[in-house]
Design brief:
Layout (H helix, E strand, L loop, with lengths): L2 H15 L4 H8 L3 H8 L7 H11 L25 E2 L5 E7 L7 E8 L4 E4 L7 E8 L1 E6 L2 E6 L3 E5 L4 E4 L6 E8 L6
Antiparallel strand pairs: 1-2, 2-3, 3-10, 4-9, 5-8, 5-10, 6-7, 6-9
Helix pairs in contact: 1-3, 2-3, 2-4
Length: about 190
Amino acid sequence: MNLTEIIGKRLKAMRSHRSWSLDQAAQATGVSKPMLSQIERGESNPTVSTLWKIANGFGVSFSSFVEEDQPSIKKVITSEVDPIADTSGTFLVRPLFPVKPGKSFEIYSLELLPGCDYASEAHPDGVEEYLLVEEGSFSLTVHEMTYSLSAGENLRFAANFAHCYQNLGDTPARLIMMIHYPYPRA
């Protein structure tokens, strides 16, 4: 099963679990009813922004749409994880360690290609992002402040403000992102 199908099945299961119609899901997420329907049928591969809107509307983690059942030990090879991209294809997210019930964090690999200008909506109050830069450089604007980060530099910030990732350089920036929730996820 490919990533588009997995996301579609998870979305349909979450909507069914809540007994929500497509109209109710569209209202909760801000994503159109036709788009939600296409995603559920595996006919549309949602962008990073769309998947975040859906996750926030359902009150679940981003990774809950792509996580697999995991054994107590699992080796993850970043290059083998299918990325989820923004509409421009320059902001790539690879879920490495999805949030699990009772846990309060999830870990991603991010790749910001040259020209990346990705705006993220605010997360719920209390959510923090931790960024660990492995390669390249980029800037992050959060709460009207811009921070330039390069390999070996790291940043933590309250993610309840809109924030923007930009790579205006000529080479990709690669980083690890951990999202920490103020309470264990259900």
